[in-house]
Every structure is written in structure tokens, then in C-alpha cells.
Amino acid sequence: MSESLVQIRQLTKHYTRGKQTVEVLHGIDLDIPRGDFVALMGPSGSGKTTLLNLIGGLDTPTAGSVSVDGKRIDQFSGGELAKWRAEHVGFVFQFYNLLPVLSAQKNVELPLLLTKMTGAERAKRAQVALTLVGLADRAGHKPNELSGGQEQRVAIARALVTDPTLLVCDEPTGDLDRKTADEILGLLQVLNREHGKTIIMVTHDPKAADFATHTVHLDKGLLAESGAH
């Protein structure tokens, strides 16, 4: 396994609600190697999604550092963070967040609207991404003409279309039946093994975690344990 892509040191996150301070993460240290597929597990409220959001640059820490590919993203301004996310991170959520009025192809093209690509270049990149997830023949379909599993594949294609350094997935199979979930997890495994994508996935499902190469357990904002599969 090559060097660490993600390095987290003494990562702490507090939220203030009124006069109350809620401490979600307490000084976490974690290294994630480039090319790894990590499942983040733990009970509800353990800080899994908060940790994922800090790694993906959707949130900023109270204290400590988050480095991705040698860059201290915790020191970025809001504008720098938005630009970095757009270029380096692909996001996959439990609910697919597709725009219902757009075709699969146009949904996949959305992240590319922030780039200088021409319409033809965007279309080509979207077609490649849809082919990668096995949906080239559904490019013209709108979300309501697709199954849940197909919608999640479109969401994964959209996450991949910018060729991100890192793919972060928050309960990507939480809304799917077991058979469809396993197909999606198998797809993530292929993207990791054959295309070298570094993937961090929050899940509460031990069967989903089995598809990853490593599991990291959180409990009450602390690392409980981690292990290889």
C-alpha cells in the first residue's frame, strides 16, 4: 500500500447549540492510505458523518488538522475549500440528490459546469462515467424512469465524472434492498481495485463493510478500533 492520502491529527469538532456545546469528535488521529477502501462504522451519534464531512471538506474542524494529498484543507478559506472539493472529491449520499427534470446524462454533467470544458467535452466525460457504472444505455432517462439502484449508479457516475482523488460515500446503500445494495458495493469495489479510487464510506451495515479493505470503528467521538479485511 502506498503513502497516506488522508492524514488526520488531533481532530476535534464541537457544535454550539444555544448555550450548549456538543463535542462530536475528540482528538482523532487517522491515516488512510492512497488506494484504500475504508468503511467508517459506529453507533448512531458516534461522529461518523462528521468525520466524513471534515475529510470531504464539507465542514471545518474546531481544532486539529486534516491533510488530503499533502494539502492542509483545514487551513483553506471557504472559497478555496469549495474549489478544492469540486476538483478533488466525489460525493455519494444515501438519497441520490438527482435533479428530476434532467436526464441521467445531464445529472452526471452537473459538476463539470464549474469547469472550462465545452458542452461536447462534458457530454463525452459523462458518457464515460455512465459506461463505467454500467448505465450507458440509460443516459437519456430521467430519475423517475430509473430504479433506486440505477439512480445510485447515476449518482456514483456524477461523483466520478471529475476524476476525483477521493470518493466519500455516506450510507450509499442505506435506501436499497440487499441485492441492489450488494451490486452497488460491488461497483465501489471495482472502482477501488481496478481504477485505484480511494473510497471512504460511512455505513452501519456490517455486510456493506465487508466490501471494504479496512474498517474503522468510532464510538462517542473516539476511534474504538480499526482492522483490515
Automatic annotation (TrEMBL):
CDD domains given in the database record: ABC_MJ0796_LolCDE_FtsE
A Gene Ontology molecular function term of the record: ATP binding
Domain of life: Bacteria
One Pfam match: ABC_tran
Keyword Transport: yes
Keywords tagged on the record: ATP-binding, Nucleotide-binding, Transport
Domain ABC transporter: 6-229
Name of the protein described by the UniProt record: ABC transporter ATP-binding protein
Naturally occurring in which organism (per UniProt): Arenimonas soli
